[in-house]
């Protein structure tokens, strides 16, 4: 039976598409955006996390670790080069400060969890959202999962970074999706490579090709841009985004406000903050900054939804 690595299944979400939704977060992503709001979803492997705020200092874990991998002198507590991911410490931790990140799951188990919420989907116009990480890295698994949701009458939405094989996507996933939220982060290829870890040519081409598949009045695809201070929220980037959207005959986009909560998540999985302590990265996006970004797109004829 096929399995995919799932970070979390979250019910009652109001932020990941229309209505009330259940969100299936996949683990593993082909990009490595410095500001990723779900950094624990980046690696396609199981990990261990430590939450300093939950630790009650009982030291039970220190006594049980067979590798001596837990060390109060380590800024992240866990010496990951020694840890074998046996999760003995997670089993004994009384407070949940130590936790396993990622679980392999079968299609049936995911559908069973999500389908319980169908009455909420039906009354609110909601459904299931596949998010991540990047779900499309598990293309065949997603095809099976989406088929099962369609058979059960559940509306389907995919959140994607856009880096995938278009032919396979068009054949296997596109017919099973009601909505596609497609992230367009940086239009400049060099900046995209620098901040997201890969070039953006395939992503832009995929958006262009998907846009060409849309029929008037039945647009499944929506471009989304996370507003990262001084990186994606610059006037140059937003004007270039608008030009590209118009070339693709896309008239709408969504802007996602930056928030700094990812930095704490990053620490829990033992990673240093790649953006350092720069001021705007430490605070939620200023509403004035959001208004300015919206105005730029609207001046260019793009409706911000
Ligand atoms: S997962 Fe196992 S090896 Fe790693 S810190 Fe916990 S007990 Fe030690
Ligand atoms: S077992 Fe849990 S609560 Fe106790 S010291 Fe270890 S991490 Fe902290």
What does this structure look like?
This protein is an alpha/beta fold. It has 2 domains: 3-43 and 104-304, TIM Barrel, CATH 3.20.20.70; 47-101, Alpha-Beta Plaits, CATH 3.30.70. The chain is 32% helix and 19% strand. It is built from 11 helices and 11 strands. The protein has helices spanning 60-64, 88-92, 107-115, 118-124, 139-151, 166-172, 189-196, 201-212, 235-247, 262-268, 287-299, and strands at 3-13, 21-26, 47-50, 98-101, 103-106, 127-131, 156-160, 179-183, 221-227, 252-257, 303-304. Strands 5-1-2-6-7-8-9-10-11 form a 9-stranded mixed beta sheet. Strands 3-4 form a two-stranded antiparallel sheet. Strand 9, helix 9 and strand 10 form a beta-alpha-beta unit. It is globular and about 65 Å long. One iron/sulfur cluster (SF4) binds at residues 48, 65, 67, 69-70, 78, 83-89.
Concise structural overview:
By secondary structure, this protein is α/β, with parallel strands linked by helices.
Features:
single chain; 305 residues; alpha/beta; TIM Barrel; Alpha-Beta Plaits; 2 domains; nine-stranded mixed beta sheet; two-stranded antiparallel sheet; 11 strands; 32% helix; globular; binds iron/sulfur cluster
